[in-house]
Amino acid sequence: MDTERLYYADAYLTECCARVIERAERNGQPAVALSQSVFYPEGGGQPADTGTLNGIEVLDVQAENGLVWHMLAAPLADDTVRGQIDWARRFDHMQQHHGQHLLSAAFEHALGLKTVSFHLGAGAATIDLAGTALSAAQVAAVEDLTNQVIWEDRPVLARFVTPEELAQLPLRKPPQVQGPVRVVSVADFDHSACGGTHPRSTGGVGLVHIRRWDRRGDALRVEFLCGGRATRDLRWKNAALGRLAGTLSVAPAELEDAVARVREAEERTRKQLAERIGQLIVLEATDMMTRAELAGIVQVVRHTYVQRDLEEVRALARAIAEHGGVALLGLRAEKTQLIFARAEGLAVNCGALLRETLAQFGGRGGGQPALAQGGLPDAAQLDAALAAAVERLRMG
Ligand SMILES: [Zn+2]
């Protein structure tokens, strides 16, 4: 015998009594098939119900060859059971699932966009539409149309139909099953072949809210929330908006303008800071040139920095070169670096000097005659490497 699926006739039944008609083991867990069940088995994009059988947790529910199998957290000895579903979870699924019917129908009525797939996740639900472009105004119009049908609280009719009746119905979604076909209808709006659970009337969905949409190859993925999920989402967004507005001491409606002002101010400050750092670096280079050492005929500034910004050290090397000197700078940061620069017209090849110095200390690198930079493998050798470079300059 097959399991009688009580949710077909009444999706609001939360419990029932039943006989165990078969027992099995699934993935190491005990499982039972029942004579009748209020549990919805996973299918049609709607997740399985959870709940209990005689107090034992039902972890998963799957349909197989006319039987509905209940996967249990522990063995069940009884031959008769009282089953109870997690109603909050089921009703959430009913809201998302039926909301999807209405949303898909609205996209088709308003824009001629067909739904090619549906996914109901724990956080949000998505549909994929056969299309590639969607404007914010179109999305708002579809959302409005869907909510209008929800608020009209039209009856939802779910029933098995004869082949003759089926042939008369303008189905949005054709049947994917063999045998008797169940059709879920909202008058003058949607007829879909579906074995899922639905509210009695469209008002049960409460609200549809489209959260985002983007293009996925040849399709458009639309993410939406219905009923309780939409309310919870709007609740945290409202709270977050309030907190953000509070940190800037403005009303939530003024937040966008306030953020734009903060960003402009930050950009001005960043530019000013870069300018001041540039000026400081020139002063620093001037000061360092007063303490330059003579190597052969060139003035050499040798110095090591710890955890300083690499771009700043490079700018400093260039500034020293502009003051007529040769900069041999070292930086101990995430990596240990040598930065060499020389003044225009000096007969020093920084690229060659760096290559020879690094070769002596197990590193590799090079660069242009005027500016070169490379990594030193052993940070402890930094002072020795700079001393060796000065010595090379001295030797000419
Ligand atoms: Zn359905």
Ligand types: zinc ion
Instruction: Give the low-pLDDT segments.
Output: none
Order of helices and strands: EEEEEEEEHEEHEHEEEEHHEEHEEHEEH
Derived structural class: alpha+beta
Q: Give a quick account of the main beta sheet: strands, pairing sense, barrel closure.
A: 6 strands, antiparallel, barrel
Number of helices: 8
The residue-averaged pLDDT reads 94
Helix content: 25-40%
Query: How is the CATH topology of the largest domain named?
Result: Threonyl-tRNA Synthetase, Chain A, domain 2
CATH level 4 superfamily of the largest domain:
Threonyl-trna Synthetase, Chain A, domain 2
CATH 2nd-level architecture of the largest domain: 2-Layer Sandwich
What is the first-to-last residue Cα distance? Answer: 100 Å
Broad shape: elongated
The Rg value, from CA coordinates, equals 36 Å
CATH class of the largest domain, please? Alpha Beta
Describe what this molecule looks like in 3D.
There is one protein chain. This protein is an alpha+beta fold and 396 residues long. It has three domains: 4-85, Beta Barrel (Elongation Factor Tu (Ef-tu), domain 3); 91-242, Threonyl-tRNA Synthetase, Chain A, domain 2 (2-Layer Sandwich), CATH 3.30.980; 278-395, Diaminopimelate Epimerase, Chain A, domain 1, CATH 3.10.310. Helices cover 36% and strands 31% of the residues. The protein contains eight helices and 21 strands. The chain has helices at residues 87-111, 136-151, 163-168, 227-247, 255-289, 310-322, 350-360, 382-395; strands at residues 4-5, 15-26, 29-34, 36-37, 51-53, 56-64, 67-72, 80-85, 115-120, 125-129, 156-161, 181-186, 190-193, 208-216, 219-226, 293-295, 298-306, 326-332, 336-342, 365-367, 371-375. A six-stranded antiparallel beta barrel has the order 2-3-7-6-5-8. A six-stranded mixed beta sheet has the order 16-17-18-19-21-20, with helices on both faces. Strands 9-10-15-14 form a four-stranded antiparallel beta sheet. A hairpin with a 2-residue loop joins strand 6 (56-64) and strand 7. Helix 5 crosses helix 6 (310-322) and helix 7 (350-360) packs across helix 8 (382-395). The protein is elongated and about 105 Å long. The mean pLDDT is 94. Zinc ion (ZN) is lined by residues 97, 101, 184, 194, 196, 198.
